[in-house]
Amino acid sequence: MTAIKVEHLHKTFRIPHQKRTTIFETLTGAFKPPTYETFHALTDINFIVEEGEALGIIGENGSGKSTLLKIIANILRPSAGSVTALKKLTPFLELGVGFQSDLTASENIKIYATIMGMQKKEINDKMDDILKFAGLENFRDTKLKNFSSGMQVRLAFSTAIQTDPEILLMDEVLAVGDMEFQQKCLDVLNEYRKKGITIVFVSHDLGAVRRFCDKVLLLNKGKQVAIGDPTEVIDKYVYAKVETSSSKNDEPESGENKVQNDQHGLTSHQITEKIAEIVDVKFYDKFDHANTNFNSLDPMKVRIFYNSKESIEDPVFGIALYSERGKHLFGTNTFLKNYPINSISGNGYIDLLIEKVPLQTGKFLMTVDLVQSKNYVPLDHKDKQYSFSIIPTGYEEGVLGLSCTWELSSERAA
Ligand SMILES: Nc1ncnc2c1ncn2[C@@H]1O[C@H](COP(=O)(O)OP(=O)(O)OP(=O)(O)O)[C@@H](O)[C@H]1O
Questions:
Q1: Can you give the pLDDT at residue 244?
Q2: Which of 113, 126, 213, 330 has its CA 20 to 30 A from that of 356?
Q3: Which among 65, 94, 172, 218 is the best mutation to test ligand 1's pocket, defined by most ligand atoms within 8 Å of the CB?
Q4: Half-sphere exposure of 235 (CA within 13 A, CB side)
């Protein structure tokens, strides 16, 4: 059964061209009618959320996610089109609206829970649970003005989850609190899911969206780019940032980042006359597009473009991988991989194929080397000049993304 139906939804905002801030501007401007620009925040959005489904909404900043959620929640009116919600909506959007800074935590819980539709007895019965969930048992009688913003959101979220939603709308709630609190929120959401509650969930945390949602909607500049299977849609998002990115690492090498980077201790400046040169390095994603954003454990191809003025016999290409802070993570070359190259001359490229990028979230830097191995003449050395990022879309933690599986046996192997 359908829980939410969004049809041909449009939202435009009228933005005034000039602001009248001084008395002079107000007086002189009184004779000129104000002019407006129409901004299309959402254009022709269409989707259905089935009962019990969890829909994730993702997209860049300003793509229209919150506007869409507010329209579904009835906080904003659409400019055209319609939203039909066939169940009771509980929005967790602006958590803590109605909080009073001069009142204590328990007094605020009473007010907020009442706003969220709970009865007095129910609130009193659940008071301890709410404070415990928020980790604020010892702050029951502390005035809210002495709480950090994180504590306030924890209090609001803990109160809000005590309501009995049929459709839950959530905007970035998981962005607040520490890892432990975020995990507690996810546990609650999982409980809701088990109970068959429909959830619409806006988040920048692609890992949480992938873990949690049945379906994902991708917005870009107010347009619906894709809706469907989380992995496919998240891939579209991660690998769509193609044109805007460059693999050239422009950040100056400084302090901590500066490491003695290869076994020969070379720097690019030491190679004065270049008879052969690395002219560029590009990273290719699983769709064979040049990209600098990758999912952990996805395939990657590193393409090293060279130009050789003369014929170079027996060349060796090598790479070294570093964390953003300059920690050496890995190095290999064509000699170590037993890939002899007879000679190179003119323009060309060589590919390093990585089946599954074994890294988690972060930016990584690459050094590329070209040497003539016969007498080990360094030809070119590009020191941490190329970079790519692993976008946090995975499930696991840490620096490494190991490709591994678990296997349980009921008996100990002999
Ligand atoms: N009341 C408003 N008046 C004018 N423009 C608005 C208004 N509300 C939102 N916008 C604009 O609409 C666009 C979409 O905003 P929205 O907050 O929905 O994006 P978002 O995807 O949720 O962004 P973020 O990830 O940063 O929260 C933005 O360009 C924003 O500036």
A1: 44
A2: 213
A3: 65
A4: 12
